[in-house]
Design a protein that fits this description.
Elements: H1 19-28, E1 43-47, E2 52-56, H2 59-68, H3 84-87, H4 96-106, H5 112-132, E3 136-139, H6 140-157, H7 164-179, H8 185-188, H9 201-227, H10 234-240, H11 252-282, H12 285-299, H13 312-324, E4 331-334, E5 339-341, E6 344-346, E7 351-354, H14 356-359, H15 380-388, H16 403-420, E8 421-425, E9 433-435, E10 439-441, E11 446-451
Parallel strand pairs: 2-7
Antiparallel strand pairs: 1-2, 3-11, 4-7, 5-6, 8-11, 9-10
Helix pairs in contact: 5-6, 5-16, 6-11, 7-9, 9-10, 9-11, 11-13, 11-16, 12-16, 13-16
Bound molecules: protoporphyrin IX containing FE.
Amino acid sequence: MSAPDLPPKPQARADRVSLWRYLRLFRQDILSAQPARLYRAWMAEFRTPFFRSYLVNQPALIDEVLKARPMDFPKSDRVGEGLRPLLGASVFLTNGAEWQRQRRIIDPAFEGGRLRDTFPAMWAAGEAAVARMAPGLREVEADMSHAAADVIFRTLFSIPIEDQIATEVFHQFRAYQRTQPILNAAAFLPLPKWMPRGHRAETRATARAIRALITRLTAARMDQIAQGTAPDDLATKIMTTRDPETGACFSTEEMVDQVAIFFLAGHETSASALGWALYLLARDPEWQDRLAEEAEAALAQGPDFAVMGKLRLARDVFREALRLYPPVPMMVRETTAPECFRDRALPKGSQIVISPWHLHRHERLWDNPDGFDPGRWTTENGKTCLREAFIPFSTGTRVCTGAGFAMVEGPLLLAMLVRKWRFAAVPERVPVPVAYLTVRAKDGIWLEVRRR
Ligand code: HEM
């Protein structure tokens, strides 16, 4: 574990270990399976008997892969393997023309103006989260999952998490995640295609149950749209947007795939970031008090989108949580032709791993890379790194569709919670970060909660 004054960082492994030991470490946790040199390297190569993978950790190279030539580095089919029973052909898993078509229909729903429209629903979810909080020792990761799921249901389908279908979807997703992590050894160390694998029966059954529930919501919405009675929310917007090139809308089946990913990508990630943000504030009462003061002044005027312009500290704290504990710690792409990176020849079919986790703590880029310092974003180093070395939402054309959404949701919920409640870290319960579906604390995040 890290020095006592620094927020927790997983212990790195020894520099050289056997492949089998590496695989074993991987099964425990992808973060502690990596050597410490990745926090200083620009690029690293991992060779196995089956394939090669390259961790790319230099801003210019990351730009090349994600921004300059994204179509040359598609997502590998293997990455989403564990998620396919649930997500079907959702935008998270597709590539090429199919992916482009889906983004043409989805992107307009997340544009700036639409964010303003979803604000009252986010605010209502924030008020509900504040009301559910209670004094005492609490595991706040679960609280934040609940809150982020509520945000998604309210903004997407205009229903709160207490709705019966919403509650059921939420519980089924939890069961799914326990059986199928998003980032498993297969993502980073893909097995050769001929090796047999398959989804566990339990995973498939849970995926079917979730899809049945989402189908009910989506089919009901199709009817409301046909009758002209649909609420003006994200689901209606996406389901009525025509592809500007073909004029076609999503079918119900296609929409089910997309709703599944919005729910999954949209609530797990935000919940992870909010949980860590609360923890970081809990171990830094000074920043917490400053944020509470800002929140009190900004939020008193009620649910007005303009408050976002006043929640500067909340934004900086949330950014710092995304930097230190990026919910999606690593992303994987594949080369479609031979490439040359840093004078090294990469064969076609190599895995390219981009690691926000390592980039965000890179010792040659960041001042005080492992420290919690929301003030860094106003320094020269912080501003440069924000542009060049901060990619919690990825970057380029395949950037997270919900990035703008999450940057409203996160700071807003944080400010609403800290305005009413005081959080304190519990010395004997230091959370250990591990990469499950997203970066989570091994045994949850336990905080002492009091009324402010
Ligand atoms: C703090 C919150 C969030 C974080 C850190 C985050 C992070 C990411 C990252 C890193 C990716 C790229 C993954 C890759 O390329 O392998 C991604 C993709 C995506 N995210 Fe988010 N996300 C967040 C919230 C959301 C929300 C709120 C939504 C929707 C409501 C959302 C929807 C998506 C979708 C649909 C994709 C796939 C985009 C594509 O492949 O074209 N995310 N997210």
